[in-house]
Amino acid sequence: MRPFAGVPQVVAHRGASDDAPEHTLAAYKKAIEDGADALECDVRLTADGHLVCVHDRRVNRTSNGRGAVSTLELADLAALDFGSWKLRADAEEPAEAPDWTEHPDGADTSVLTLERLLELVADAGRPVELAIETKHPTRWAGQVEERLLHLLKRFGLDAPPAEGPSQVRIMSFSARSLHRVRAAAPTIPTVYLMQFVSPRLRDGRLPRGVGIAGPGIRIVRNHPAYIEKLKRAGNQVHVWTVNEPEDVELCVDLGVDAIITNRPRAVLDQLGRP
Ligand code: G3P
Ligand code: CA
């Protein structure tokens, strides 16, 4: 992770997902344009072995299709529209919601493969990091991590460069998933995501070999002393999903290392960053 003088890194959660439909090329292009330091994405494996950027187990919420990603093939997903739901959700009156295909970014809202996202990052013209989350449970546990590392290797991202930090980190709520990653690629940083503080981690230590804690913003609000404990134990802290200015301020006060947000431009502005 590239260090900044005293301010947290700004990570675009599912892309600039306040402005464009989450996990689409449109959302990631906007995040890069907005100046985000890193892009967060969730990955799932399709029935025919492709890693795609989709949050939910099923495609029902974010597309015009139905079914579990793990049982669909890439061609099935490619036939779906992953954009219009957002326009409908954002429109004050349902009748105002235009068809996403009429939107200037309409072409960029088909299903996004991780491979395409890696190409976008490679062509960004400036350093952009990636925070990739493996989603569990899944019928493809184990294979997700294997495919992910294989793909990262193709892009030369399966280990940090000779000089400088890793461009990629892998995150999960599943300690087992992170363990698989570390066993195969020990130099890729791993982030242990937390929705609550489990009693066995109260002393600020993380699962073996994990150096980054990923607490939800509620943990930060309710247990700021725990964040300090994590830092004292030598961990980095990457907080999700931080969209409100007062939460950004709290994260800065606590010295967190990365803020994961749906609004990268607004957070950069608050931090006084270009
Ligand atoms: O960045 C971590 C965060 O994305 C975890 O929660 O549900 O948004 O994937 P979720
Ligand atoms: Ca995520």
Automatic annotation (TrEMBL):
InterPro entries per UniProt: GP_PDE_dom, PLC-like_Pdiesterase_TIM-brl
GP-PDE domain boundaries: 8-271
A Pfam family: GDPD
PROSITE patterns: GP_PDE
Source organism superkingdom: Bacteria
Protein name as catalogued: Glycerophosphodiester phosphodiesterase
Species this protein is from: Streptomyces cavernicola
